[in-house]
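Structure representation:
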Amino acid sequence: MRTRIIFFVLICCFPFSIDAQTADQRVEELMEKNEWFLLDEEFPVLKNKISSPVLKKYTEMMLKVYFNELPAAMKDVESLLANHQDELGNKLIDVVICECQVLARMGYYEDAADRMRELTNQLAQFVPKENIVDLFTFVDYYNQLRHVKPFYILRSGKEVKIPFTLEKVGRGNLMFFMVNIHGQEYKFFFDTGTTGMVLSERMAEKIGLKPIADSPVTGSMGKKIGKVATIDSIQIGEISYYNPLVHIIPPDPAVDSIFQIDAALGADFMNLIGELHIYPAEKKIVFPARQMELPPTGRNMMVSNGAYYLKVFSGNERFKMLFDSGNVESDLFASYYRRHQYEIISRGIRDSIYIGGVGGYAQRQVIRLDSISLKIGDIVFSLNNVAVNPDKEVYQNDEDGALGMTFICSFSKVIINFRKMFLKVE
């Protein structure tokens, strides 16, 4: 399920005025195209050939942001701001924006708001306010959260296991498990497609949460204004999760009349945990005491604007796939359709499906393929009866599709590491 806060997209191209050199041009090209997986692969060779020290440091910063090395990214931000402001030129603004985004992702809302306010106050002297409205929105939102403490977890050094159930929702199944809030048990589903916690309005009222800010939320069918609250702590098995942000979704009669899910636990918690193992057949999630080493195939997961993406291959073709355990199926999107239109039309069977979520519920015309062979890491697998949507949905960016519950349930074990940023299947 795609449910996340969106304010703006950081501009990542970096037009330095330098003599053309192969490494510099290649880095700039990959950043401009948002080819972060490919840049991550090539950068170990490129970095020693880059002629501009500022470009090199900027690229390192951006890779750390996209591959979830936030404390290290902050050190690069500090170095750029302390030593290279003149060389950064107009890109100084993007570095400060990046700093604010990272502070917010780490839960330092007051610092993020204050730093962004400094930037907007300076920009407002030279730029029409309507051109930087997203930055003002950022300031307003996080200023309301300035007294919220950073989120964190407490756990023992032991392995933690929690059972889950697979329950039918719409066209497929989702993973549900129990969460303890103030001594009461509530059913949540596991959702890599959202940040923080998501609660329905009725669930939030039942728990007694008091909203502290409006929360612009983008879902699979559009945008809505919900509310955001915080809660002192929740318990997942033997793990305590403190100060999570809770995004409260208003009721939607069109969606709620067909299915209603009251609670989801998203990627902020999983990021704090670091690593989890899903055993679909055994219906358990394990949070290991020790994390795995990075596989020889390297990093295959990145994060952008709160969404997690996987690097997947089909033969020699490279895919960027949204990883969304709140999606009951696995789908291919318009970008894939545009590249393979004639093959899809000749092989596929037309079908209609209903999709729903934040923003509404609607019918879509798709083309189903009997199967497609993919590879993640060193494992080849097939997605069967996969729907290809020829039209771009509001929540989609440049990704080729989404891997959801049908993907997860294809394996005996799925290992997700949010520190080293890889997903491994067995």
